Amino acid sequence: MIKIKGHLICKNSEETDLIRQLLPEHTRLTKKEAGCISFDVTETTDPLIWKIEEFFKDKTAFDNHQKRTLASAWGKETSSIIRDYIIFEIT
User: Fold this and answer.
1) What's the pTM?
2) pLDDT tier at 91 (50, 70, 90 boundaries)?
């Protein structure tokens, strides 16, 4: 299993607004992916920081998620937002 834990860090309120706009569709599509066990991106008490916690069945499922994400509106339009996360492989 693959676990991703960390944060999205926005530089300004425009990036936060962009996350709010695009996240529902990104979440919906991610949860439909084969091998997605759970996917949560939530606001924190700091409006510029969002908590990430994702679980995928295996590395292949996660790699497929990454490929889809890069080609999506989410991937293209949020590419300047800082991603600070750690990937764990749980055996």
Assistant:
1) 0.92
2) confident
